[in-house]
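dumping this here before i forget
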Amino acid sequence: MASESDLRLLLFSHVVCRPESDIDLGQAALVVAEPEYPELDIAYYQAKLDELAERLGQQLDASDPPGERATQLLELLSEEGFSCERGDYDDPQASFLNFVIDEHHGLPILLSVVSLEVARRCSVPLWGVSFPGHFLLRGESPQGRPPLLFDPTTGDVLSHSDLHALMQRSTGKQRAIHKSDIEPVGKHTILARMLGNLRNIYLRHGDLARLQLAAERLRLLDTQLPSGRSSSGQLH
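structure:
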């Protein structure tokens, strides 16, 4: 007879081990939280994202260029109070989408998931970027212009010098910004980075049972990641 842990791993595999186009990122992020919230109503939180997108979408002008709409949407989400608090970096709950939707704060990557899911519902082009040490968002820019890059914790557009400062602050290293640092990433990579954050938090806390579950889920996801990418070392 399958254990509760086996059943949860089976559910996670069912949701994420499929082609990127078939993954519902919001649903998958909520399934990550399910072991901590056994009575979690996933449909309820998806409906809350629907409501948020409908309300904010009414404030966007569909005739504006995609980059302007992305900028406006992230400004609106910031005005809603979505942010990152200092304690979030060591709090497992800040890695759970239901908590972030309820409390309006969490790790950069979870704020990014909220933004991505709202943007998708509003037909605003937006992508996740697995920048070292600090997850970012990328919008569509006019042809020939550098990509629009956003800090999900503030909604601000980042300049090249901002990226260098962020690299130094997040990783403690100074180096050139590589093209690969700001390329859009897929849903499998986003989910792996979320779980990498949880694994690292559980490791610091000495929480071996939860650490094992995060590691098992990461092993599943690693089989889905593009060649050359790994969940190791990815933070926030």
